[in-house]
Structure formats: C-alpha cells, structure tokens
Automatic annotation (TrEMBL):
This is HTH cro/C1-type domain-containing protein. PROSITE patterns: HTH_CROC1 (PS50943). InterPro entries: Cro/C1-type_HTH, DUF5753, Lambda_DNA-bd_dom_sf. Residues 16-70 form the HTH cro/C1-type domain. SUPFAM superfamilies: lambda repressor-like DNA-binding domains (SSF47413). The lineage of its organism: Bacteria, Bacillati, Actinomycetota, Actinomycetes, Mycobacteriales. Gene3D superfamilies: lambda repressor-like DNA-binding domains. One of its GO terms (molecular function) is DNA binding. It holds the Pfam family HTH_31.
Length: 289
C-alpha cells in the first residue's frame, strides 16, 4: 500500500508511547533526561506534533530501542514528514476528516457498511457531482468542485499498484435510491458493476436484502473498519451519521463494530449473488426509461 504520512505519524507515536509504558517510565523522567517540556512529549505521543529527527534519536536511546527498530522508526519519520494529497483540501475539511483520508490512503483493507447512499469511494463522477450540487452536499457552492475532486482522488486506491482490499456491505435500498434521478442512479449501478468485474481479487460488494436479519446489525449508520499492514497497528473504525462523523479508537467499541460487521457479512448473499442483484436492479431501472 502507498505510504501515508498520517499512518506513519500514528505508528511512531503509538510505538514510542507503548515502549515508554513497557519500561515503566513516567513522562517526567523522559522530559528531565532530554530537556523537553511535558507538553511537547504529550503532543508527540498523541500525534499532535512530529518530533524532529535530532530529538527522536536520543529519545530512542533513552527508551532502549534496538538498532533495527530505530531504523524502522527513522524510515517512518521520513514518511511522516511528507504531505498527503488531502492537505490540499485543508480549507474545506476539518482535522478529523483529513485524518480519515490519511488513514484510508494508508490502509491495507477497508470494510464499509452503508444504509442509504453509495459509499464515496464507489461513487461515479456523475453521482459525486450531483451530491455536491444538492442542498446536502456542501455548505458553500465554492466548495463543490474541490470536494468532488477530493472524493474522486480517494478512489485512486482501488486502482493503485498495491490496491486496497475493499469489502462493502450495502443495504438493498442503496441500489434503489434515486435522489438525483433515474439516469444517475442507473449510471451509478453500471459503474459499480464495472468496478466489481474489473477487480475480482480486491473488491467484494455484498448486498443486504430487505428481508435479511442483517439489516438490523448496524442500523442507520455509516461504518468503516480500517485494517493496516503493520502488526503494530490495530483496526480503527469510522462512524458517521447525517450530522457528523468521528474516528473510533476505543478497542472495545471497535471489537463490537467488528463483531456486528462480521456477523452481518456471514448472513448476506455471496459476492456473485450480490452482483446479480445489482445487475437485476440496473436492468429494472433501464426498463423504466
């Protein structure tokens, strides 16, 4: 998967904090030895700042980190100094959304649940633009074009040389919703069919039928579960409703979301059967025009 400064910074912070805790060192012990302020160390351990390399090296020595791991951390530091594509859009996305984009870009796999709208990473350009132009898409018309552009940039992970492993659980209603009209709904379904057929090894779209008990698993919320290649990084979640969204890092909450998702996935039609349902819905829309 591509390098993400957001993921690299998170991993550095997590590994440094865990190592300090393993050694039983209080933050004050570190700050006294290295001449750092308590606020500075706290910002480093909580990803608010990236420690300069000339300060990172003595910190790793104090933490008794071996040479191999030091090289790993310095390599991560080089990545963390970079700027992700999402920083171009800092004027229109808050810090939480930008962090989601960075985590998404550096994830090995993402599992999505959506109840109403097509997930952004699967939306065709026409669907994206119609959403941005709607009363619910953007707060300012000036943001419509850059937000649409950013949404389409997220989709590059699907065709990257090391592509994202994406699983999406979509309620059947997502296929039938026509908020931007029949033509765009049909175009979106054709786009979705094309993606599924072009990426059989990395894209798994499952439809939750109206009569499936799985519709009750994650009612009314958009959920992402983000998995990472590094064994040092846990799964994170993103939970979103109509008004706001946030990253879920609490391990118990993530485990519960993972359990609900896994249970629902086991209850729905197969990838092939879901694809046939999508095709059937597209044919029905085509027959009405």
């Amino acid at each position: 998967m591509p390098d993400s400064p957001i993921v690299a910074r998170w991993e550095i912070a997590r590994r440094l904090r865990q190592r300090r805790q393993e050694l039983g060192l209080a933050p004050s012990t570190i700050t006294k030895q290295l001449g750092l302020s308590a606020a500075y160390l706290s910002h480093i351990e909580n990803e608010r700042n990236l420690m300069a390399a000339d300060k990172l090296r003595p910190l790793m020595t104090v933490l008794e980190i071996d040479e191999e791991e030091q090289r790993e951390l310095l390599a991560l530091h080089s990545v963390a100094k970079g700027r992700g594509w999402w920083t171009k859009y800092s004027a229109i996305f808050n810090d939480e959304i930008q962090r989601l984009h960075g985590l998404e870009f550096g994830a090995q796999g993402i599992r999505i649940h959506e109840s109403v709208l097509m997930p952004g990473i699967l939306q065709c350009p026409e669907y994206v633009q119609a959403l941005m132009d709607s009363p619910f898409g953007v707060l300012s018309p000036a943001h419509s074009e850059p937000m649409a552009e950013a949404r389409l940039r997220r989709q590059a992970r699907l065709t990257h040389p090391d592509p994202l492993q994406l699983t999406a659980l979509l309620n059947q209603g997502v296929l039938l919703q026509q908020p931007w009209g029949t033509d765009i709904a049909r175009t979106q379904l054709r786009h979705l069919i094309g993606l599924i057929e072009e990426h059989p090894e990395t894209l798994d779209i499952r439809i939750i039928p109206f009569d499936s008990p799985a519709v009750a698993a994650l009612v009314g919320v958009t959920v992402y579960l983000l998995d990472f290649a590094s064994p040092r990084l846990p799964t994170l979640a993103w939970s979103e409703n109509g008004a706001s969204g946030h990253i879920v890092e609490d391990s118990m909450q993530v485990r519960e979301l993972n359990h609900l998702y896994t249970t629902a996935l086991a209850m729905v039609p197969s990838r092939d059967d879901s694809l046939e349902l999508i095709k059937r819905t597209e044919r029905q829309l085509s027959s009405t025009t």
